[in-house]
Amino acid sequence: MAAFVILILIAASFSEVFFTQRNLSNLFRQIVTNGLISLGMLTVILTGGIDLSVGSIVALSAILSSGLQRQVPLPLAILVALVAGGAVGAVNGILVARFKLAPFIVTLATLGAVRGAVYVYSETPQTPTDPAFRSILGGFVGPVPVAAVIMLICFPLVWMFLNRMAAGRAIVAIGGNQEAVRLAGINVGQHIILAYVISGLFSAIAGILLAARLGIAQPSVGAGYELDAIAACVIGGAVLGGGGGGAIGTFGGVFTLGLIDNLLNMFNVQTYYQQIFKGLIILFAVLARRKE
Amino acid sequence: MSEQEYLLMRGISKSYDGTQALRGVTFSARLGEVHAIVGENGAGKSTLIKVLSGAVRHDAGEILIDGKPVSLDSPLHAHQAGIRAVYQEFSLVPHLTVTENILLGQMPQGRVRGWVDWAAAHRRAQAILDELGFTGIDVRTPVSRLSVSHQQMVEIAKAVAERPRILILDEPSAVLSQEELKRLFALMQQLKSASTLILYISHRLNEVFEVADRITVLKDGELVGTVRPQDTDEGQLIKMMVGRTLGEFYPRREAKLGEEILAVRGLSREGVFTDISFSLARGEILGLFGLVGSGRTQVARSIFGAEPADAGEILLEGRPVWVRSPREAVQLGIALLTEDRKRDGLVLSCSIRDNVSLTTLPQVTHWGFLNRRQMDARVQRQIQELAIRPPQMQRLVRQLSGGNQQKVALAKWLLTQAKVLILDEPTRGVDVATKVDIYRIMSGLADRGVGILLISSELPEILGMSDRVLVMREGRLVGEFTRAQASEESLLACAAGLLQENRTPTRDEG
Question: Which ipTM did the prediction report?
Answer without folding.
Answer: 0.86
